[in-house]
Model the fold of this input.
Amino acid sequence: MKLGFGYGVSHQLTRVKSPRYLLVLLSILFFSATAEAARISDLEETNVWEQMFRFFSMRDDVVRTALLGSVFLGVSCGLLGSFIVVRKLSLFGDTLSHAVLPGVAIGYLVAGQKDPFAIFFGATLAGILGTVMVNLIKKTTHIKEDSSLGMVLAGFYGVGIVLMNRIQKLPTGTQSGLDKFLFGQAAALSATEVWMIAGVAAASIVLVLLFYRQFLVGSFDIGFARSLGLPAGLFHYLLMMLLAFTVVVSLQAVGAVLVSAMLVIPAASAYLLTDRMHRMLIIASGFGIFSGVLGAFFSFLGNSLPTGPLMVLASSAVFTLSFFFSPKHGLVSRWRKRRSGQIRIENENTLKAIYQVRESYGFAGEGVKVKDLAIRMNETSDETLRRLQKLRAVGVCDLKEIEGKPFAFLNPEGWLRACAVVRNHRLWELYLTNQAEYEPDHVHDDAEIIEHVLGEETVRRLERLLDYPVEDPHGKLIPSLADLQRSLTQGGLDEKTTGYRMPNR
Amino acid sequence: MQEIPLETHDLTVAYDKRPVLYGVDVQVPEGKLVGIVGPNGAGKSTLIKAIMGIVPATGGWVKVFGDSFAKGAKRVGYVPQRESVDWDFPVNVMDVVLMGRYGKLGLMGRVRKSDREIAEACLDKVGMLPYAKRQISNLSGGQQQRVFLARALAQESDLYLMDEPFVGVDAATEAAIIELLRELKDRGKTILVVHHDLPTAQTYFDMLMLLNMRLVAFGPTKEVFTQELLQKTYGGRLTILSEVANTVLKESK
Done:
């Protein structure tokens, strides 16, 4: 937290130091960029709008197949990806998607053309072979899983690339369209391929809906699933089969290199947004569809850029947003939580200082001279005034001028909170010295932190343990919990006029 | 005739050809609270996992209420080790406890209202009902163990197998758990508990199973908790067994 503060300060300093050069540089950049853009837009702006219209009106067959393919692909990637992420199988997904590549090439060679079914079978077989090899290496040697996954991934992918290159050199090779299997091209999807993607998506949805419970308990606690007498192995293989099919049918649209990213990224983004599996499945599918469609759209807009990288870019953007703005796990909400905690601690420290100043005057008088407070907090009166204004904003403190000098007055609530902080601090010091056998001069720093986090339950236990102490290790009074509550109730009834009373009798 | 909740005969288990349990014969009578004790690596967890088929047995057989485990699974409740699952998994406390009902639901059955009520009652029994909607990663170790216990209770079984339910829990939770186990026993349930603390084992359990790759002894705590038998379980005499096991492993490579 302190680091963050430091950055803010230095940032301000740099801004103050070098404004002019930066401004000049920026304006030059800006003007040149707009000039450039104006020149390009003269030529292409109409094209872009036209293309967008063509895409979203879905008049073209090509656009329609590409769009449908991306939607179904997003659904199955989101569903299967969610299970992959919570089961920590991401690397396995990556290996599988690379291992299918030689199967694609062999399928092409056997069929003699780009036949979707031949390629499907070839790819599925290669995927299964890769999985078997990973398990074989893991079981028969002492090489661990991550290494065997890595080796199979690279080995199969290498074989795939070599075969692809051979095919490109065949007489019919240049029109094979196999190069699209590396980085994906949604526009190259045939109707048959879209049907296959839709089929896998439908199968995934139906099976996940039917066997949600079995998949859930198998993913969370496989041992318990077996103890229930469920065929846990069967459901595991079912899930792996669906995963393999999803990877294989997605190849044409996303490409072997990046299929695993489409599995992992939408699911991981959803994982940041929810704590329930069924919601994660729904959100991940939504993100999958969004990324798929956006990728297909930009690919279309950019004159058939490879779809895979664009889809992955879109899903990465979604992930970045979740990473920053997720309500529970997001960076921004975490930062805000920490910030509000810091403000509370700062206010509590001010309250404590007010207590200490009053204590030094034997609790005579109700207000505290701001100057005394500034001396106690080791800062200028202005800084202290700013602190007090923060307290006033929370509604626990009043500022008044008496004989031209500023005074701070706590209302009953503020006073109770001040007493509570002091009590926590001193009680903790006493606990450390008496029970944990710290030296009395070692305990202050620890208590400075603990005083802000002790809950009422713990305080009661500490009081009981220490036999309701009245003095801390340094001989100062400890305002007890019972005293505080008594003063709260009595203060409400009898002493409305004075506002608050001394906590210790 | 009284049913025998659990019977094993010559139950043998090996991991990667390395034997961890040799020929365990045991007959557990109904309505007993049984502790399984033994040194580290004695195969305590393996025994209960092998009973439920979570790890495959390499030899022998298991009968649960006179039938194979697959047929008797509905009458068996299980509390796995707390560390065996990922506590960041996206489920809340209620989801986990409802998993205890899955065995009764069949392949396609849905979770009904009555299942939810049972799950709530079980959560209440372990004092975790206020946490029903809590995500499981926000629980302390003792609370996690209580959730697992509630899940097992929701199974409404006649035989319970628990793997180290007292590890990493606070004293209050430990007392609450043992109280609950005794209550189950009084209702005629049979409970096997893997336990690693000898002094408490003596007071907690009716019967003890002393295990060190072999079943050293099984009987009422008073008869089994003797200097001689404990010496045999924890002393060095059985080390030859594990040495031989290692030799078997080397030979097979």
